[in-house]
């Protein structure tokens, strides 16, 4: 009963976060924006009640230290922030979100299995819906040449496809016992369709994340395929370079300008990540000790004027943004803790290679490492109002309960 509540409440919370990112043209998300705060707060209260009642609190683990240190750093940053009220309110929400996700993992050691089953069907619906829009209303759902589908932003569609759709379909393909040929074909078509939509979105960071996910998955899922995986990766790289060299000049120029270069040659303020990186470094240099405060825009950011292009926390790089907000020493210290968590996940995944849980562990590690790579290009990692942030931390924090379950 307790675990059943935990898994369904988490699935509802994740679905609310997905809904709040839908395109306003399609759906009014104002009510769901309120529910985004209700679910983690009420869920945390109920989780704590069950944990206290059953005395289920575990010993202090690396994950607990990671949560507590992060909350402490965010709290300190809010105290010295240039805007205490805004920063402190975001710290409260981040604390509630983190504690809710972790206590849910404690209550249900099979939480991720239910989450991925749920996200598989959500992915199916999103892919079908996006293709419908792509075929019948293409002009309305492209933004500057980027297909955004049902979401407000093409990059958000890319994140959903890279981190939710592809992994959930992979798990379905590899863990379903004796699948019928028809359903196996459907899943392959779904992965192909997701990749086509990803290309249409032109989200370069999400494309790179999928490549990292697939490499990690095939490398860790079975000890016997490590050499084959390296050969496969080398062959794909060689094939890609060869194909790029032999295709016509117009096609090569299109790939370079629309996918590799994209907006990097633009003179528009903050249209390139290079300019945003430079801004982050300038902010760190100006206040290196305590930072500007969690979730706060330094005065350097007053140029942000177009809400359609840049929200108040998009800073182009999660790690630089975090260091800018909490200070250089504290930021680097916490990134070391995060690296320890990643190493721990990789070590336990390698132990399971070739076992019953090896495939699932490899996909989870692939999602985590792909998220770390992706976070170098977008600043979602430490902002808990988005689906992708909660999804990433849920998987990272569930490694403790997942190890117990296996």
Describe this structure in words.
- By secondary structure, the protein is mainly α.
- The protein is 71% helix and 1% strand.
- It has 16 helices and two strands.
- It has helices at residues 2-19, 30-54, 62-79, 84-107, 111-136, 154-175, 181-201, 204-220, 226-246, 249-261, 273-286, 318-326, 328-352, 358-374, 387-397, 399-405, and strands at residues 142-143, 146-147.
- Strands 1-2 form a two-stranded antiparallel sheet.
- Helix 1 (2-19) crosses helix 4.
- The two termini are 21 Å apart.
Could you write a compact summary of the structure shown?
The protein has helices at 2-19, 30-54, 62-79, 84-107, 111-136, 154-175, 181-201, 204-220, 226-246, 249-261, 273-286, 318-326, 328-352, 358-374, 387-397, 399-405, and strands at residues 142-143, 146-147. It has 406 residues and is mainly α.
Unreliable segments (pLDDT under 50, ≥5 consecutive)?
266-270, 300-313, 402-406
Order of helices and strands: HHHHHEEHHHHHHHHHHH
Helix content: over 70%
Shape: globular
Name the strands of the widest sheet in spatial order: 1-2
- Per DSSP, the total helix count is 16
How confident overall, as mean pLDDT?
77
Give me the secondary-structure topology.
Blueprint: H1 2-19, H2 30-54, H3 62-79, H4 84-107, H5 111-136, E1 142-143, E2 146-147, H6 154-175, H7 181-201, H8 204-220, H9 226-246, H10 249-261, H11 273-286, H12 318-326, H13 328-352, H14 358-374, H15 387-397, H16 399-405
Antiparallel strand pairs: 1-2
Helix pairs in contact: 1-2, 1-4, 1-5, 2-4, 3-4, 3-13, 4-15, 5-6, 5-7, 6-7, 6-8, 6-14, 8-9, 8-14, 11-12, 12-13, 13-14
């Amino acid at each position: 009963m307790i675990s059943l509540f935990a898994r369904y409440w988490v699935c509802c919370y994740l679905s609310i976060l997905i809904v709040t990112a839908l395109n306003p043209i399609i759906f009014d998300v104002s009510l769901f924006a309120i529910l985004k705060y209700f679910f983690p707060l009420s869920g945390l209260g109920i989780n704590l009640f069950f944990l206290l009642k059953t005395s289920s609190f575990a010993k202090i683990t690396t994950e607990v230290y990671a949560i507590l240190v992060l909350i402490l750093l965010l709290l300190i940053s809010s105290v010295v922030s240039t805007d205490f009220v805004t920063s402190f309110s975001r710290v409260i929400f981040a604390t509630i979100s983190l504690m809710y996700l972790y206590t849910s993992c404690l209550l249900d050691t099979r939480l991720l299995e239910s989450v991925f089953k749920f996200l598989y069907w959500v992915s199916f619906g999103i892919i079908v819906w996006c293709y419908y829009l792509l075929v019948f209303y293409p002009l309305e759902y492209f933004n500057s040449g980027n297909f955004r589908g049902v979401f407000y932003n093409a990059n958000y569609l890319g994140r959903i496809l890279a981190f939710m759709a592809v992994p959930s379909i992979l798990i379905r393909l590899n863990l379903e016992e004796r699948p019928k040929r028809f359903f196996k074909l459907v899943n392959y078509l779904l992965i192909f369709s997701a990749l086509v939509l990803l290309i249409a979105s032109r989200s370069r960071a999400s494309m790179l994340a999928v490549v990292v996910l697939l490499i990690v998955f095939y490398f860790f899922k079975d000890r016997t395929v490590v050499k084959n995986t390296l050969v496969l990766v080398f062959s794909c790289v060689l094939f890609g370079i060869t194909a790029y060299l032999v295709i016509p000049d117009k096609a090569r120029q299109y790939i370079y300008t629309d996918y590799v270069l994209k907006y990097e040659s633009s003179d528009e303020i903050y249209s390139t990540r290079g300019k945003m990186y430079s801004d982050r470094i300038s902010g760190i240099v100006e206040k290196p000790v305590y930072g500007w405060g969690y979730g706060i825009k330094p005065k350097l950011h007053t140029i942000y004027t177009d809400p359609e292009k840049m929200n108040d926390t998009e800073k182009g790089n999660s790690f630089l943004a975090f260091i800018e907000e909490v200070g250089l020493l504290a930021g680097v210290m916490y990134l070391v803790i995060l690296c320890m968590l990643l190493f721990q996940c990789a070590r336990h995944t390698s132990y399971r290679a070739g076992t019953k849980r090896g495939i699932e562990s490899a996909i989870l590690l692939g999602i985590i490492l792909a998220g770390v790579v992706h976070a170098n290009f977008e600043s979602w990692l430490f902002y808990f109002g988005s689906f992708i942030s909660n999804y990433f931390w849920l998987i990272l924090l569930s490694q403790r309960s997942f190890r117990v379950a296996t």
